[in-house]
Design brief:
With 443 residues, this protein is mainly α. The chain has helices spanning 8-39, 43-68, 74-91, 98-126, 130-148, 150-158, 167-183, 199-211, 214-244, 249-276, 279-300, 309-327, 330-336, 343-372, 374-395, 416-424, and strands at residues 405-406, 431-433, 439-442. It has a 3-stranded antiparallel beta sheet, with no helix packed on it. Strand 2 and strand 3 (439-442) form a beta hairpin. The chain is globular and about 55 Å long. It starts with 7 loop residues before the first helix and ends with a strand.
Length: 443
């Protein structure tokens, strides 16, 4: 898996991602503690609302950036977004009102909504070989797990000597470090070509391709199941550990680390697993385990007290493993399902639509937990995950070839791609056109 690090450009970008995510992880811990400091037992509702605002920023900004990313110089744009995020992080320690939390979170996450899909769409251009890209996805998953594992552990150590407000300074340092590493490499120009049409046509193109591709509709349903589980962990861990168990800040960080540890272990095993087992099987299996874990914890949490903490740690660990299995191969699906020129728009669509799932799950986790208790929150989110799994089974065809057959009616008949496609279509009589530039799936 580490052979892909021989590519200097990818290696530096991965390092930038790791540093930025460690800083973001510190902010996640600090934000939960800040919400508890301001709102007490209602921290889950405040945090759920703050994270819902984050999702609104992602859903609104992501498609716009995806539509115009081909016109932007990638390196300068990524560096600018990092610096904006660093500046906002430096303001968070001075917050003492709930509305201030909401405003700054929107500003921070708007910059992230511009940065992340642009960054993700750059990696396939750096690593065109599918085997290398598959390994890069696992390394990227490990980088995200550092946000859930290393950051809480680092936060737990730092909180023994400093106030949680200082953790936001670590977030700013992470974004500055990311910007410097992006500056250290030359990024390939986007292969996307200028598209005709107004802002509506451009901003919805990725969505239209995504929602007309069966495997990607299945991916969206899996995103919903994964969001249900991750929302329970991210929103309600601080309330369960601080309010129900009566523990301190370090126990909050360690509980979040259990979830990240499970995800990291799964990410290490996934490249070899995906060589032997189809991605659909792995992803659906992960979503099913997430659903079962939520329901099991709900049944076991009657009269929850501090003695339940070891059970919670095991449950979070298992859910972390299943979450990684459910979502890590998603980048591979996106790469297989889009032409190079459509890739930025499709990655932006995945970014926006997956966060629409979290927009449902985050406030649901916070409000149900605050109003009806944590056991009810577990049951409600388990029901949401069940819906996602059933939808994925229905939407994602069991027969899922790696290369989707497709047509390009807007290209001239003598275009090389169309001539090559005509040869590949010989013998395929049961195809239907999904999109003006996209896929024909066998019936």
């Amino acid at each position: 898996m580490l052979t892909v690090l021989a590519n200097r450009t990818y290696r530096n970008l991965l390092a930038a991602q790791v540093i930025a995510l460690v800083g973001t992880g510190l902010a996640t811990v600090a934000l939960g503690l800040l919400a508890y400091d301001i709102a007490g037992a209602d921290a889950g509702a405040v945090l759920g609302t703050a994270l819902a605002i984050k999702m609104i920023a992602y859903i609104g900004i992501g498609p716009i950036v995806g539509a115009y990313a081909d016109r932007l110089p990638r390196r300068a744009f990524l560096v600018a977004m990092d610096m904006i995020r660093a500046g906002v992080a430096l303001l968070l320690p001075f917050v003492d009102q709930i509305w201030q939390v909401y405003v700054l979170i929107f500003a921070l996450q708007s910059a992230s909504a511009a940065f992340t899909p642009t960054f993700q769409a750059t990696i396939p251009d750096i690593l065109p070989d599918e085997a290398e890209y598959t390994r890069a996805l696992s390394l990227s998953r490990l980088a995200y797990d550092l946000e859930s594992l290393l950051s809480p552990m680092l936060a737990a150590a730092l909180l023994s000597v400093i106030s949680f407000h200082w953790l936001f300074g670590g977030t700013a340092i992470g974004f500055v470090g990311s910007a410097l590493l992006v500056l250290s490499v030359t990024l390939p120009r986007s292969p996307a070509k200028p598209r005709e049409g107004g802002i509506y046509a451009r901003t919805t193109r990725g969505m239209r391709i995504y929602l007309k591709t069966p495997r990607l509709r299945g991916l969206l349903a899996i995103n919903l199941a994964a969001a249900a589980a991750s929302a329970m962990v991210i929103v309600n861990t601080v309330v369960i550990v601080r309010n129900t168990f009566g523990f301190g800040q370090r126990e909050v960080a360690l509980s979040l680390a259990a979830y990240g540890g499970g995800s990291m272990l799964a990410a290490l095993a996934l490249p070899r697993l995906l060589d032997r087992i189809e991605g659909r099987t792995v992803m659906l299996g992960g979503a099913m385990v997430l659903t079962a874990a939520l329901a099991t914890l709900g049944l076991a949490s009657e009269g929850m007290t501090a003695t339940f903490w070891p059970v919670l740690l095991v449950g979070w660990f298992v859910m972390g493993m299943a979450y990684a299995a459910a979502l890590t191969p998603s980048g591979l699906l996106l790469r297989r399902s889009a032409q190079a020129e459509d890739r930025p728009a499709v990655f932006a669509a995945q970014f926006a639509l997956s966060h629409a799932c979290w927009l449902i799950a985050y406030p649901l986790a916070g409000q149900v937990g605050a109003r009806f208790g944590q056991q009810m929150a577990l049951f409600v989110l388990a029901a949401l995950a069940i819906f996602g799994v059933v939808a994925a089974l229905r939407l994602w065809p069991a027969r899922d070839p790696k290369a989707i057959e497709h047509e390009h009616p807007d290209l001239p008949e003598n275009h090389p791609h169309k001539l090559e496609h005509a040869k590949s279509q010989a013998g395929h009589a049961h195809d239907y056109l999904i999109d003006d530039l996209h896929a024909n799936w066998p019936r």
